[in-house]
Automatic annotation (TrEMBL):
Source taxon at top rank: Bacteria
Protein name according to UniProt: Aminoglycoside-2''-adenylyltransferase
InterPro entries reported for this sequence: Aminoglyc_AdlTrfase, NT_sf
């Protein structure tokens, strides 16, 4: 078990692209880097880098990555080794490093699907066709669509300043359809209201 949660030396986007392009899984970059790939520029410093895969692809990803990396499953604040053959039914986050003491290199976010639809784990009534959750840069790097990434950021137990800044930076560049999807999804998850709705309403009023 490891507890060095802040011991990060993240890979670059090209590094991730080289690794995951060799794995027969659907994947895309998530987190703050996904937003910057959408913008076409780096907007701020990123302490880590996140990659999404689908739960049904977990063994394929493990088989390839475990040749060169150690994979740790995150559960209730603890990080323990993901063992060969172990099926992850609820775990959503995997932290990856070269060995037991080296810095964290990247994080894998496992997402669920049902009948060709991505299922939002924090409110399972929010769904979207799997084929419609990622976009691709001109260089071919897949990334999570910004409205979905912003939903994840807005649904954290504590919304950080950088997440609000990401919202304010991205909103003017989003399509009306993306903005409406984000507003609707926040309203579904937070029927009593969400602080980001006022920013969305100010932009669209």
């Amino acid at each position: 078990m490891r507890t060095d949660y802040y011991n990060w030396l993240p890979l670059t986007v090209p590094d991730i692209f080289r690794i995951f392009s060799n794995i027969s899984v659907k994947w895309c970059i998530a987190g703050g880097w996904a937003l910057d790939l959408y913008l076409g520029r780096q907007s701020r410093v990123h302490e880590d880098i996140d990659v999404i895969i689908f739960r049904e692809d977990q063994f394929t990803a493990f088989e390839y990555l475990s040749k060169d990396w150690l994979l740790y499953k995150a559960h209730k604040g603890n990080l323990s080794l993901w063992k060969e053959g172990e099926r992850l039914t609820a775990t959503k986050d995997i932290w990856v490093s070269k060995d037991a003491t080296s810095p964290w290199a990247f994080q894998i976010m496992i997402v669920d699907t049902e009948e060709e639809a991505w299922v939002y784990g924090r409110e399972t009534s929010i769904r979207r066709p799997v084929k419609d959750i990622c976009s691709t840069t001109h260089e071919g790097v897949p990334y999570l669509k910004p409205e979905i990434q912003l939903l994840y950021k807005g649904s954290s137990s504590e919304i950080r300043t950088k997440d609000l800044n990401d919202l304010l930076l991205l909103l003017p560049s989003l399509s009306p359809q993306a903005i409406e999807w984000l507003r609707s999804s926040l309203n579904i998850q937070f029927p009593s209201g969400h602080e980001w709705i006022k920013h969305i309403d100010q932009l669209t009023s």
